[in-house]
Amino acid sequence: MKSLEELKAIREKMQGSVAFRSDDSNQTRVVVGMATCGIASGARPVLTALSDAVQNKAVKNVAVTQTGCIGLCQYEPIVEVYEPGKEKVTYVKMTPEKALEVVDRHLIGGNVVTEYTIGALAK
Amino acid sequence: MYRSHVLVCGGTGCTSSGSQKIQEKLKAELAAAGLTEEVAIVQTGCHGLCALGPIMIVYPDATFYSMVKEEDVHEIVTEHLLKGRVVERLVYHEDKAGEGIKSLNDTAFYKKQHRIALRNCGVINPENIDEYIGTRGYEALGKVLTEMTQDEVIDCILASGLRGRGGAGFPTGKKWQLAKNLVQDGGQKYVCCNADEGDPGAFMDRSVLEGDPHAVLEAMAIAGYAIGASQGYIYVRAEYPIAVERLNIAIKQAREYGLLGNNIFGTDFCFDIELRLGAGAFVCGEETALMTSIEGNRGEPRPRPPFPAVKGLFERPTILNNVETYANIAQIILNGPEWFASMGTEKSKGTKVFALGGKIKNTGLVEIPMGTTLREIIEDIGGGIPNGKKFKAAQTGGPSGGCIPAEHLDIPIDYDNLISIGSMMGSGGLIVMDEDNCMVDIAKFFLEFTVDESCGKCTPCRIGTKRLYEMLDKITKGQGTLEDIDKMEELCYYIKDNALCGLGQTAPNPVLSTLRYFRNEYIAHVVDKKCPAGVCKSLLSYVIDREKCIGCGACARQCPANAIVKTDYIGEGKKLPAMEIQKDKCLKCGACMDKCKFGAISKK
Predict the structure, then answer these.
(1) Fewer CB within 10 Å of terminal CB in chain B, N or C?
(2) Are B365 and B204 in contact (CB under 8 A)?
(3) What are phi and psi of B318, to 5 degrees?
(4) Is B255's Cβ below 8 Å from some Cβ in A?
(5) Which domain holds residue A98?
(6) What's the rounded Cα separation, in Å, for the pair B563 and B93?
């Protein structure tokens, strides 16, 4: 390496990965239901799509994690978004494509993707 | 891209409790569950909470698993990593009744800490330079080389108020300034790192080297630029194999990236670092002895002045700083000297790492802002003293330091305060002692260490410490006189004033400080021929209470010296005669007391 630019390039490449290991209570948590019901209905590709997108797009202060069965097995794969100080948003019957939309519109854009939420489906 | 990172501690503490096997098992289990592409295993340096090792942390949710065993790995993978259910039974519990604490930062152990020197330990993989760069690594070196003059770097370190973390507390910036201003003939100057950590119970430097080796390399390069040196040496103990291995890897990676070598960042600055392994002599942690050893000679100190900054390694101007000192440098450059100076007390800035050991619940590594009290470290961070025992004293500074008694628990810790109460900061070993520790015995322990480690070059240290040890030995055997105590004190001051190097000059400190605060214990040994803590064997005797003894004979069968015999006395309501210990045969091993179920045997 001969230049500061190259150092910067490595830093930026690694930053997402290292920042991933932060423990900040102010961060938004995106939780994917990964119990047997969730996995069977395809939660794993949803989880990896979310995780990759958040790291690739370097979305700040967002942690993608998983949880067990929430009890709404018929709506799996379920993704819940917990933003500090805001009401929880529950997305149901997710796919990797829908997940990417949630990253762009909700996590980055700040607007809830109403059509995928449990409220929209129950109507 | 990985959706989860599993951090497994690879510090020496966790390695010896089996973390390597856990890593291998984890790898196999992840493969079996088909998660290899989704979950990354990251081997890190020390997390500090060595008492709870092996430690595993799962991100992004930062779940903190402690005392993980190989057979737990399967459950963690199938439950947590696959299904997202935290394995509650492995989560750390601060008290048994309370709820498990999921995140490391929520523990009392971490809450009061402020990590600068240890900031990357337990967070990044020390064997991967990219991860270090990801936490702004080598950015400070880049800034220094392209934007700052030598004087600006030195002024920055001066303004931060950073003082040497090896123990003496000399201002780091001043040391650099001295070496920089000596433009003798434009010839070679050297930058050295003292990683010859030898105090019993201290392992701060080892953890930094194991957990964040690049931080030391980067700081040495910065120091090299500041004083105009192109060669650095790290003098590290051969007894730290993991640290040596990670340093070697780090140096190789830094060379490959051109962060060590010629024309770093395209500037004229050239700098390289070599390792030198110490063979375990304590005196080689003394700066002049260390440099003599690097030169290839027997590690013996020489008189100062000339100081190393004037005439050091190979008779050239040299700066020598401790590992922890270096670990602060890049952070000071990046965040500014004001940031660093905002922490700590008036004369001691920043933080200090301590290795907590002895009679304390959370043994391990802690980094606290200067000015924190000893009480906060022991009671809040360290979790107090186990088994409900009472605090007696804390020992700082190893064989060069002294004891701090309970009455000084609330003194804010900094360099000057510790010296004012007869101890010293030292490199950061902090050994906690409870009522079961005999202070005369502690002083004897440290003197035995210095007698062993004295290099023998100067008489006050070679013979003086030996005589001190003999007097202490006499006292612990109950043969001492009050005159011995006075003589000992006089000898202490004589050694302090006349020894050649720091080792000898500070060797009497454990005796002086225990005499200062625990003179009554010395008197008890000499006058009453008693050891109040019940440690010194020669002053102990085991006796059987014949009213409590039922005459079962279990103690007699256990006694290796056949010292226990039957008496003629049969106590009230007892069927068999009571037993008795014959004092002339008793070895005072205590085996009988452990065996007796009736509490009939006691030591006095």
Answers:
(1) C
(2) yes
(3) -140, 140
(4) no
(5) 24-122
(6) 46
- Each domain of chain B, given as residue ranges in start order, spans 4-106, 129-340, 351-434, 439-526, 541-603
What ipTM, to 2 d.p.? Answer: 0.78
Q: Per-residue pLDDT tens for A20-68?
A: 776 666 778 888 888 778 888 888 899 989 988 888 887 878 888 887 7
Q: In chain B, positions 41-60, which contact chain A (CB-CB < 8 Å)?
A: 57, 59-60
Mutate to test the interface with B, among A3, A8, A10 (most CBs of B within 10 A): A10
Give the predicted TM-score (pTM) of the model: 0.86
Tell me which residues of chain A, numbers 68 to 97, contact chain B at a CB-CB cutoff of 8 Å: 68
The answer regarding whether domain B4-106 maps to CATH 3.40.30.10 reads yes
* Residue B340 tokens, joined: 């660093």
The domain defined by B439-526 folds into de novo design (two linked rop proteins) (1.20.1440)
Asked if A26 has any chain B CB less than 8 Å from its own CB, the reply is: no
Residue B184 corresponds to which tokens in the numbers above?
């003798």
Residues constituting chain A:
123
- How far is Cα B260 from Cα B229, in angstroms, rounded to an integer? 13
Closest CB to B103: pick one of A15, A23, A52.
A23
Residue that has been written with the tokens 């409870």 in this structure: B434
The tokens of B172 are what? 């780091």
Indicate the fold that domain B351-434 takes in CATH. Answer: Ubiquitin-like (UB roll) (3.10.20)
- Tell me: the pLDDT tens digits for B298-346? 999 999 899 999 999 999 999 999 999 999 999 999 999 999 999 999 9
- Contact between A7 and B139 using a beta-carbon 8 Å cutoff: yes
